[in-house]
Design the sequence.
């Protein structure tokens, strides 16, 4: 996607890695676990986990993101366990199971149908070891749809002079959100893009995950494990186990 090609050079400045993500992973997955980050971007989380003793891997659809991730891992003297890949074809990419799989950054909803989402989650389930953990994070679309929210909060990095504007246009007929972005750089250069997202409600993903076989599914409103509030939580974070 052209959006992520343009974003790759600024990804870590727009979406900096936060300690609460790592803390949540460490709570559910012990050190030395084998973990796959699906939609890994430029690899900051994979590298941070590797530094903490995890056997961490990352995959992303964007060639530019993966190239940047490999550059970053080389700088940190971390094995470059990254590969370009389509999340819809996980089992073609990986043939050995994982102890944990993570999918942050609203990645799941880039799949535009319930069937695609179900097939993706089925592959996640099949690639997990017994007792394996899947942790995901998406936007809370219960809040977006019920309140008719059309613009997400502005993301700013004053030090780098970056601004990312994000707009939502809901297509009720097709049940898709047209996600428009405007990235403004310090030199006033702009990148404008648009993609479609599937507005996945908590009830939908919960039904899918239960049908696949995930158990003990917990939901939070953020990575700090605040209770999920469908009306007010900005995010939906889920933690599920394969028995």
Sequence:
């Amino acid at each position: 996607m052209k959006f992520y090609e343009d974003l790759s050079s600024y990804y870590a400045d727009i979406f900096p890695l936060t300690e609460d993500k790592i803390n949540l992973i460490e709570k559910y997955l012990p050190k030395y676990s084998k973990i796959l980050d699906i939609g890994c971007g430029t690899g900051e989380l994979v590298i941070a986990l590797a530094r903490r003793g995890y056997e961490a891997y990352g995959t992303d659809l964007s060639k530019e993101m993966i190239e940047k991730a490999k550059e970053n891992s080389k700088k940190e003297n971390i094995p470059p366990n990254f590969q370009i890949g389509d999340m819809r074809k996980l089992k073609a990419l990986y043939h050995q199971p994982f102890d944990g799989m993570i999918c942050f950054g609203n990645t799941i909803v880039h799949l535009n149908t319930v069937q695609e989402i179900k097939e993706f989650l089925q592959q996640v389930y099949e690639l997990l070891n017994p007792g394996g953990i899947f942790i995901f994070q998406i936007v809370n679309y219960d809040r977006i749809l019920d309140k008719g929210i059309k613009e997400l909060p502005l993301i700013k990095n004053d030090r780098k002079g970056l601004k990312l504007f994000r707009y939502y246009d809901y297509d009720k007929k097709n049940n898709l959100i047209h996600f428009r972005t405007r990235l403004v750089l310090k030199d006033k250069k702009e990148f404008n893009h648009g993609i479609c997202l599937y507005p996945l409600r908590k009830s939908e993903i919960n039904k899918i995950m239960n049908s696949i076989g995930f158990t003990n599914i917990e939901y939070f409103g953020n990575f700090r494990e605040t209770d999920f509030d469908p009306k007010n939580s900005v995010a939906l974070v889920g933690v599920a186990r394969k028995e």
Summary: The radius of gyration is 17 Å. Residues 147 and 231 are 8 Å apart (CA to CA).
